[in-house]
Amino acid sequence: MKKTVRRTAYLTCFVIGMAACSATAAAVAPKTLRVTFQAAESGFDPVKVADYYSGTVIEAMFEPLLTYDYLARPAKLVPNVAAGLPAVSDGGRTYTVALRRGIYFSDDAVFKGKPRELTAADYAYSIKRFLDPKNRSPYAFLFEGKIEGLDDLALRAKTTNRFDYDAAIPGLETPDRYTLRIRLKEADHNFAHLLAFHLTGAVAREVIEAYGENVSSHPVGTGPFVLKDYTRSSKIVLEANPRYRGKIWDFVPTDDPLDREIAARMRGKRLPQIERVEVSIMEETQSRWLAFIGGQTDMEYQLAEVATVVLTPDGKLKEDFARRGIRLQRSVDPEITYTYFNMQEKLGDQPNPLAGFTNEKIALRRAIAMAYNVDDQIRIIRKGQAVRAHYPIPAGVAGHDPNYRNGIAYAPQVANALLDRFGYRKGPDGYRTLPDGKPLVIRYSSTPSERDRQFDELMKRSLDSIGIRLEIHKDRFPELLKLENQCRIMMRGSAWIADYPDGDNFMQLLYGPNSGQSNNACYRSPEFDRRYEQARRLADGPERNKLYKEMTRLMEVHTVWIMGDSRYRNMLLQPHVVGFKKHPVFSAEWLYLDLDVNRPK
Amino acid sequence: MTTYILRRLWQFIPTLLGVVLLVFFLFNWVGGDPAYMLAGKIANPEHIENIRRQIGVDQPYYIQLWIFVKQIATGDFGASWATNEKISAIFATRLGPSVTVLLPMLVISTLIAMAAAMLVAYRRGTLTDRAVMVGCTVGQSISILVYIIVLQYVLGYQLGWFPVQGWGRDLTENLLRYAALPIIVGVVVSLAPDIRLYRSFFLDEINQDYVRTARAKGLDETRVLGVHVLRNAAIPIVTNVLIQLPALLAGAFLIERFFSIPGIGREVILAVERSDFPVIKAVTVYVAIATMVANLAADLLYKALDPRVQLK
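Above: the input entities. Below: the structure tokens describing the complete assembly.
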């Protein structure tokens, strides 16, 4: 009996103790933002990643020289670790950036307990890393052929097998500890966007050298968050960086009521307010959805498959969820999808029926474009979660023209008439032949995925409606990329999301010399290329916009692409999340958020 | 016995060689050129060539194959192409979560299936037997995906008995909190086929002469079933369980994906999506070796449980 009493007493003490502990823990619990990724990250070395999710975490830990104003639309460049915007001289060829003093890297054993100040040399080193062949950086293209002396250094590294980071090059100079001077090979008025690109954040050379191949899991930056705990492909925990200098929320709201609401709640707060970010990798939509509605996560947007469960047909949040205080922020991603026609005369050793600038070839491409119903693509495949793209530069990106309307409308009857007029006659089987009587077969390439099968069906239906025989070519994704790089794909759907919010990032997709790289159509038009080269030398403004419009019209006249859509991002927020507004460039807005501790999670 | 074991071990080599050739040619034939996956959005031919050189796919096939063989001999499969993480580190960190879920799942489902199978075998032809068999047939016909989705929704979200997903660093927390629902799902999925299979094992034994003799000697039914029948029916059951053991190495990818368990199955899927050949190679080889070892162990155990069995 005595034993039982004692055991009960111990148990009671234990329970009370646990309750006390959890009460204390609740009192001091850090403000924790819980988010999900639908795909695994690959690592946190800024020059080695290409995936969106790794980039998101990198954005929270590393700092580029410049950044964007949180509220201004279209995105507006502002200084970040730089003391001001770069001084552009030499007709757009030289960028001089002065760094703010007293910015420190987060603590790491490599620094042996001493604060490590950020200097201009760190940025010179970080930019050089993109072209070090050993790093095989997926974003090397950002700096390739741009900075004086950098390509030579990379070339030398290929032969010597060692990239000489100590070699002085005229394109990257540090006249003093806090000044970085970048000299470009040719004028580029939009280069500043690259200095705000999240993967150009500074790394410390001694950290990279100390961790070697493991640097991907030892990120050390100057940003607002540091990596606290990391289980690869499963969980990433960040905590506020104690070395971070902090920022005061002082953005100027626009007329948007959301801006004013955010400003009212956030103005004057020291950033970051969030003390901890927990990222869980959840590949399955059901898991993400249940975690969100069960209150286990605070923000969720990767729910395209269950959009109809959450949204009304007109894109509003359903009443059930709104009643629970969940909020929806709907924005269009800065991306375009399109279907390209290969413009090369030959695909390997086979003739390409789509190639050429003669009227009959343009008529064929135009007829296909007119037979393809983009509205069906949005309704059936995107389940209404996209808007039609009219212009190659999407909304939110400098150079976008909101008033431009694509001149190629869905009109299968007109398409049929056009083909008849140019001699594409129908045979007894109902399918058309080329004007010279040879068989006409269009080869459309796609991967064996469920989503691509839907596109195949839509394309087949479209081409059947104008009597053109379609052959579906299925191949693995890497093989399609390989064929694309060799300009050997006749027709395929593609997409491009902004690396930085400037029209050049999109217009280069049609620039002749980029054939076999980003110009999938392998479109080479001297008129287009001349305008593109002219536009590249101009800053964002009416003169450049005029050229972009001419280029778009030209592409449309030649019918190189069928313009597709831009997808919605439906961000769902729990009631306690404060300060969120989707930024067209940022993928991690965590720095600018707060959690209302008075509202229950 | 020693000669038998040595002979079986010797047979591992041609089997493994077959696996190596199959994996190597399948990957090179079906997998596509990984350099294009790793190159990023815009890549010029020099960049592609640089990647091919660094990951070694620019080498002639016979050299790549020879490197593969050397990797098996040394047990060092290098690092993941996609993340640069050492393959040994991948196994060291991902095996634990997979085993935490799969081992209890295997043990619980085997015990329940054995008990249920024994019961329905004993009551063969009765309504209970028929109902269980119909239930098993229906249960077996339903995809694992349906079980996961329904149980995750009902038990995890609606009833809130378990977290819908997650994983921590503490083994007890993982086992009791996060692995519970995945284990229940796994057990429910495997019960139907296991009960059907084990029932047939029990039925084979339950009508044997030695059972009739035991009953004639006046032994009670509990002893007849629990000792005599169970001991003999356990032989094929143990074999079946042993054969399932290598699957622990491959993980349960669907369960791991839905419940966000950082196990090896999820890693394999990720490797396939990323054309990450070093990971695929290592997993395939280890699973092949584990399968061969498990088969050998099953044969030896068979002999230990039934001395009448001759190993030749």
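Note for the figure: The two ends of chain A are 44 Å apart (CA to CA).
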